Hints:
Elements: E1 3-8, E2 15-20, E3 23-30, E4 36-41, E5 44-51, E6 57-62, E7 67-74, E8 80-85, E9 88-94, E10 101-105, E11 112-116, E12 120-125, H1 130-162
Amino acid sequence: MYNSYHWKKRIFSDTYRVYSLNQQTGELRNRTFSASADGEINGKRYTFRTKGFFKQQTEIIDHSDHSVVGKITFNSWMTKAYITINGREYTWKYQNIWNTRWTISGHGNGDIKYKGTSTGGQIETSTDDDLLLLTGLYVTNYYRQTTLLVLVAVFVPIIAASG
């Protein structure tokens, strides 16, 4: 059985809102250019805390008992991420060259399929793992911010030198 969700984000907002049947069921509030984000889905709250510089990893912390329930390891090419939640391993990856479709798969309990732009999209899932669904949005946001930082680092010196 597939469950459908959709998400929205305003163009300059730092918050993704997740909806099911037109009711908000969750949100991911990213702190722009920060090493952490807070998420909530179906009443459960989590913090995503990124550590490291060149080889970054993100810990997923459950607010109810402050325990680490998962981690995300990013690859250098920003095309995949490896997620471990409660001992189960998953792979997050883009499905097209425009980075408008991505999936989370693994552990034999179905895929989560995402499609969208920087301001909204759809999610289809055959799993009831709410944290995994929220983690898919976190990884996408992480890669979008990283891409933006790289573009700024490359183009600001070029613009400054030509002026």
